């Protein structure tokens, strides 16, 4: 990240973000020159698989004269319209997300099912080379399609999308992550990637898809497509979009797992940085709509009108028929599973971080190399899925089983593969199958001897490695299902080792193994617990699932952070954590913001505004009244860049430095200053001003936020961080403690709280961070204070 400083060799490496735009802080003169002569990007991050500039979202209410007039003029009917529209949009988000989730599942089941049926047909005819050609060729075509649309059309659609949604709800706006193009590519790409037998899931992409749907519905209309319904103007702000996208992320989980309550808790625990009770109601309503839609569509498909989409089309691993009875002696293997899950999960995160950094070097070379990487992984995956079953022995079909053996269809526990009649290949039942069917086979509890120990171990090693190397290629795909498959595999293996020594059967051990690996990798507890219970439809497992999740998370937290947190950091997204770093309590807000500011007068010359908008990237400018307008310098508030562009575009200028006498509500409406949708609104290049207009003035008072959030310069940086994050701010003004100075010291932005920036300003804090030294005030004062990027790096 910009302004970052490299850590010492002991702490460097995989813990640093991939993007360190400025490893060294420029001098004061260089910063001043850049502030007035260049227009560089304030922040870069990896979005999808491309490097893009990013900005911060602004959840603060802009209380200027125009806003106050708009609220005073709203009638009771308009307020009711706003409330009804919020619930209507929540309903539409649930409806469309449920439909999209069903379509993705329907397409995957039919495409993958047809591929496996044709391949099995050639296998029964002993035409093994043709069978492999059909299987590998189909996978390669599907993966190539997914990689092409992702690499060439919408790189932001790569990966699961959960880190990007999590960053957005934290206040980070990256280009294209919620655009219509990303939505379409996400849907098509996830169908191709999952149908192409890659070790990825469609659950993460569904969370991203739900967020995209919510964003499009909450755009507030579109002038481009003539969709500017008057009611939609209420949603042209970041606050309402944030709430809708939170509902969309919950709907995505509900559509992926048929887990409405789990979706709400996932949004609360994992992706959302800001929450309130009213939002809880709407997310729950949205998830409930998804559940009803999926249930109706599933009932329709049970009539046989959906092709190969059967009872397993929507992920539901029902183990409710299993009677659960356990005693104190059974808790020991459960504890062991939790420890194993924590160790394997932290190792998975560590290795994935290294692999993603290697992949980033490949992705930097362009779309062609992204395509080559994806095709290589596809060929390797197809070879493993088709080749590994040849290493397993053929097993005689059990007598008296209710299930068909060998299985002639596309799924089942007893796949024949290359075995003669009356025999089945247990490894083929796992690896030569879709991930969803493999999970159902692992969770099954009918026959404890259906799988050999060697087959389960080979499958575990294969899925663990493929999960590491598949995630990160330029296709949409999530981590939920690969982690569940891998965890269920070693859970089943532990159950096989326990045998009759435990009252729990092997299928339940597989469920607990999946829970342990999820907790060890993703570090979620409550939401994962409920999702697994809704998946398996067995409430009696609640105590065991809770225990294994708590143990696995505790063990894994001793080594590293959760997988999504690591990816957010690695991508360079300036995510604000819920807690401050310990060394931030040794600094004050004044220690971070000491640089010169660009300020405007209450009545400012047009030429000055145009000059600073052209030569800086500042998003907010302090407005200060000075004599003779006021007796002493007074901070009037903060005016936004987007509002200044509107004023210049409308050319409502004054011939002299005098206050405007007219009512601004007669010339402007709140819609004129509303945030644009997927577009960028006005650009400075679109504004043409004559030399005469440059000498005129603009009265900024009616358009200035007169009540920006401020902190005194002696407030600790840790306290300022918590205030900044919990209020969802983009700017936090720092005012002096004494009255004989300028009315504003600086502005804290998201960048000023980043560890790379803080440690770059105060190098001695590195020692206190890594060696646990306690800095004395004299040591802190001895550090040369260099002006920060207060506005130069204004996000």
Automatic annotation (TrEMBL):
Entries under PROSITE patterns matching the protein: CBS (PS51371)
Protein topology in the membrane: Multi-pass membrane protein
Record-annotated membrane-spanning stretches: 82-108, 128-153, 244-267, 279-297, 331-351, 371-392, 539-556
One GO CC term, this protein: chloride channel complex
Compartment(s) of residence: Membrane
Key words of the record: CBS domain, Chloride, Chloride channel, Ion channel, Ion transport, Membrane, Repeat, Transmembrane, Transmembrane helix, Transport, Voltage-gated channel
Gene Ontology terms, MF aspect: voltage-gated chloride channel activity
Occurrences of domain CBS (ranges): 704-764
Superkingdom of origin organism: Eukaryota
Pfam families registered for this protein in UniProt: CBS, Voltage_CLC
Gene3D superfamilies, A to Z: CBS-domain (3.10.580.10), Clc chloride channel (1.10.3080.10)
Protein family per UniProt: Belongs to the chloride channel (TC 2.A.49) family.
Name by which UniProt lists this protein: Chloride channel protein
Species this protein is from: Wollemia nobilis
């Amino acid at each position: 990240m910009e302004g970052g400083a490299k850590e010492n060799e002991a702490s460097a490496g995989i813990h640093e973000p991939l993007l360190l735009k400025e490893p060294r802080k420029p001098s004061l003169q260089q910063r001043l020159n850049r502030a007035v002569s260049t227009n560089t990007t304030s922040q870069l991050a990896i979005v999808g698989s491309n490097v893009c500039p990013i900005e911060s979202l602004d959840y603060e209410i802009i209380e200027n004269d125009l806003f106050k007039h708009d609220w005073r003029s709203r009638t009771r009917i308009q307020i009711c319209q706003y409330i009804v529209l919020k619930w209507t949009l929540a309903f539409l988000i649930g409806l469309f997300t449920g439909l999209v989730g069903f379509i993705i599942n329907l397409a995957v089941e039919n495409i993958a099912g047809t591929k496996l049926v044709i391949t099995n047909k050639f296998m029964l005819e002993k035409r093994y080379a043709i069978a492999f050609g059909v299987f590998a060729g189909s996978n390669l075509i599907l993966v190539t399609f997914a990689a092409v649309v992702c690499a060439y059309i919408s790189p932001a659609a790569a990966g699961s999308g959960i880190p990007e949604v999590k960053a957005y709800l934290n206040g980070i706006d990256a280009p294209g992550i919620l655009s219509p193009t990303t939505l379409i590519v996400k849907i098509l790409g996830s169908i191709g990637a999952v149908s192409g037998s890659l070790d990825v899931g469609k659950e993460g992409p569904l969370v991203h898809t739900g967020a995209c749907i919510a964003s499009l519905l909450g755009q507030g209309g579109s002038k481009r497509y003539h969709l500017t319904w008057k009611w939609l103007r209420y949603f042209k702000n970041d606050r309402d979009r944030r709430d809708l996208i939170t509902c969309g992320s919950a709907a995505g989980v509900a559509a992926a797992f048929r887990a409405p309550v789990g979706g709400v808790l996932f949004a609360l625990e994992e992706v959302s940085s800001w929450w309130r009770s009213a939002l809880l109601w709407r997310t729950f309503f949205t998830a409930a709509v998804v559940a009803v839609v999926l249930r109706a569509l599933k009932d329709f498909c049970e009539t046989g009108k959906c092709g190969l989409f059967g009872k397993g089309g929507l992920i539901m691993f029902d183990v409710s028929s299993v009677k659960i009875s356990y005693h104190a002696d059974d808790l020991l293997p459960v504890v062991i599973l939790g420890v194993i899950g924590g160790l394997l999960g932290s190792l998975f995160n560590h290795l994935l971080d290294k692999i993603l950094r290697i992949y980033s070097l490949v992705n930097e070379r362009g779309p062609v190399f992204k395509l080559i990487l994806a095709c290589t992984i596809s060929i390797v995956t197809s070879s493993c899925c088709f080749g590994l079953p040849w290493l397993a022995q053929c097993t005689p079909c059990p007598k008296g089983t209710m299930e068909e053996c060998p299985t002639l269809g596309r799924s089942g526990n007893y796949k024949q593969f290359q075995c003669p009649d009356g025999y089945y290949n247990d490894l083929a039942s796992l690896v030569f199958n879709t991930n969803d069917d493999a999970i159902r086979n692992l969770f099954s509890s009918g026959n404890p001897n259906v799988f050999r120990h060697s087959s389960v171990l080979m499958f575990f090693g294969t899925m663990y490695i493929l999960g590491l190397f598949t995630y990160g290629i330029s296709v949409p795909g999530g981590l939920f299902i690969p982690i569940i498959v891998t965890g269920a595999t070693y859970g089943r293996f532990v159950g096989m080792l326990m045998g009759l020594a435990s009252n729990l059967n092997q299928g339940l051990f597989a469920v607990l193994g999946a829970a342990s690996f999820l907790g060890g990798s993703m570090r979620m507890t409550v939401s994962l617990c409920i999702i697994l219970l809704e998946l398996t439809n067995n409430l009696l497992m609640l105590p065991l699932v809770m225990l294994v999740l708590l143990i696995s998370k505790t063990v894994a937290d001793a080594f590293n952070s959760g997988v999504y947190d690591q990816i957010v950091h690695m991508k360079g997204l300036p995510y604000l954590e819920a807690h401050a770093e310990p060394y931030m309590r040794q600094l004050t807000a004044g220690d971070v913001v000491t640089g010169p500011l660009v300020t405007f007068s209450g009545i400012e010359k047009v030429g000055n505004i145009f000059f600073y908008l052209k030569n800086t990237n500042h998003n907010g400018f302090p407005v200060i009244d000075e004599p003779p307008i006021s007796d002493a310098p007074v901070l009037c508030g903060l005016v936004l860049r987007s509002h200044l562009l509107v004023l210049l575009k409308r050319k409502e200028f004054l011939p002299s430095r005098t206050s405007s006498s007219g009512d601004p509500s007669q010339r402007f409406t709140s819609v004129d200053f509303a945030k644009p949708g997927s577009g960028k609104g006005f650009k400075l290049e679109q504004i043409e001003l004559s030399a005469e207009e440059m000498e005129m003035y603009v009265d900024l008072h009616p358009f200035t936020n007169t009540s920006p959030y401020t902190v005194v310069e002696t407030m600790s940086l840790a306290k300022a961080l918590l205030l900044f994050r919990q209020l969802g701010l983009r700017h936090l003004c720092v005012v002096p403690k004494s009255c004989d100075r300028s009315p504003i010291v600086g502005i804290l932005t998201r960048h000023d709280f980043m560890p790379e920036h803080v440690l770059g300003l105060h190098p001695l804090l590195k020692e206190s961070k890594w060696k646990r030294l306690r800095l004395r005030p004299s040591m802190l004062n001895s550090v040369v204070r260099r002006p920060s990027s207060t506005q130069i790096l204004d996000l």
